[in-house]
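Lab manual, section 2.4: Encoding a predicted structure.

Procedure: take the sequence of the chain (145 residues), apply the prediction step described in section 2.3, and record the output as structure tokens. A sample record is shown.
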Amino acid sequence: MEMKKGWLYKRQYERVPDVLKVLYYPIKESKQVLNSDDYKDTTIEKITKTGGASSFIQAMTEDISKGGLSIVSETPLAIGQHIIIDLFLPRLANPVKILAEVRNIEKNIKGSSSYKAGLKIISISKSDLKRIELRIMEIKGISGK
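Recorded output:
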């Protein structure tokens, strides 16, 4: 459990600090499309052609877990907004593909013009989830072998 500003928050999974590169694409798709697995094979070109996203935005993670992550970006997001994320893990050629929902926003973090967004993972492939689990174990110093 995490305490913040007098409120009690319960997380299903522990978040671990980790700074990783992220590219994300705000999407304007309907709920029906969001529930499909099409996002896993998306490219910037495909998303842009369908009008699902204007362009990719670069950000960095602050922490990660099996259920969500926090990103820091110069571009504001809206609570409830859905985004497609390419999460770049060290030593892996292909990014982890995630469909996430913005759950909270913190403006002007550390006196800058940046925004911190707390994201909940809505959908992720089993293999990509395993890659995140292995990264968390690596950070915590636990062998996955």
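Check your result against the sample. Strands lie at 2-4, 7-9, 16-17, 21-26, 57-64, 68-73, 82-87, 96-107, 115-124.
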